[in-house]
Write a structure and sequence with these properties.
The chain has 271 residues and is an alpha/beta fold. It has a domain of 187 residues: 3-Layer(aba) Sandwich (Rossmann fold), CATH 3.40.50.150. The protein has a seven-stranded mixed β-sheet, with helices on both faces. Strands 6-9-8 form a three-stranded antiparallel β-sheet. Helix 6 crosses helix 9. 45% of the residues are buried.
Length: 271
């Protein structure tokens, strides 16, 4: 699997809702990066792998009606839904183009901001994708990328149900050729792509009681389960038993401290 067609987490209504919830969790971290690079009124923006459009909204709020926000995603259905949501909220400057960032180009013209969040970890050739995105940045514009280091997902005190999540979820990504530590490697990937060192790096973590985090762990497990079953990493009975076990753990061990993946953001201005 060499393109976004190999998306490990599937494309279901439940997965789209999980993506929206995830975007809300990281909204402030993304907003901080957009403000750090000075995204301003009138900017021309491209959100690569835009998903349900939550980050497009943040861009539209800053670019204003005189700006342009283009979302690009291989999933045409989720993109159409995103634009409909944005237009209903008054962000008529938002448009969508269906395309695979590893082989298709967005509308021409150059962008003041090219952004990708949680895209590269789904690709087997992230360096090639970075090179392509850099070509789309206009002189003086910025490339901004946020991605996960998923090795930090855990709970304290330890619980077998979370250890099993790590085995299944991280094992599936690894078996599918994905890099679970990609966020940590972003500076090196920028250098390998010929971009040089990032101008800035932001690392954001999140810790919360398992009673709160367990829902997202269960949602990601459900999303990855079809791929995990097809790869022989887990069986359907084991999947069902795990989901029941997580429900019990959230009740019986809800005060245990869960840690999310680290979200690592980097940015680079084009001269």
């Amino acid at each position: 699997m060499t393109t976004t067609e190999g998306y490990v987490l599937g494309r279901t209504d439940a997965e789209y809702e999980r993506l929206r919830a995830q975007a809300r969790v990281w909204e402030q971290a993304t907003a901080t990066l957009l403000d750090r690079v000075g995204l301003a009124a009138g900017a021309r923006c491209l959100d690569v792998g835009c998903g349900p459009g939550e980050t497009m909204r943040l861009m539209a709020e800053r670019a204003g009606p005189g700006g342009t926000v283009v979302g690009m995603d291989i999933d045409a259905a989720v993109g159409a839904s995103a634009v409909a949501m944005l237009h209903a909220a008054g962000h008529r400057q938002c448009t969508f183009v269906a395309g695979d960032a590893t082989r298709d180009d967005p509308p021409a013209g150059g962008y003041d901001l090219v952004f990708a969040r949680l895209l590269l970890l789904h690709l087997t050739e992230p360096v090639a994708a970075l090179r392509r995105m850099w070509q789309w940045v206009a002189p003086g514009g910025h490339l901004v990328v946020q991605d996960y280091d998923m090795r930090t997902v855990d709970v304290d005190p330890p619980l077998p149900v979370v250890a099993e999540w790590r085995r299944v979820f991280l094992g599936t990504f690894t078996a599918a050729g994905r890099d679970i530590r990609l966020g940590h490697r972003l500076p090196h990937l920028f250098a390998e792509a010929g971009l040089g060192a990032p101008d800035g790096i932001e690392v954001t973590g999140r810790m919360e009681p398992l009673r709160a985090a367990g829902g997202m762990l269960a949602a990601t497990y459900r999303s990855v389960a079809p791929a995990a079953v097809s790869l022989g990493i887990v069986t359907e009975p084991e999947r069902d038993a795990w989901l029941s076990g997580m429900e019990r753990a959230m009740t019986e061990h809800g005060d245990h401290t869960a840690m999310w993946p680290l979200l690592i953001g980097v940015h680079k201005q084009r001269g």
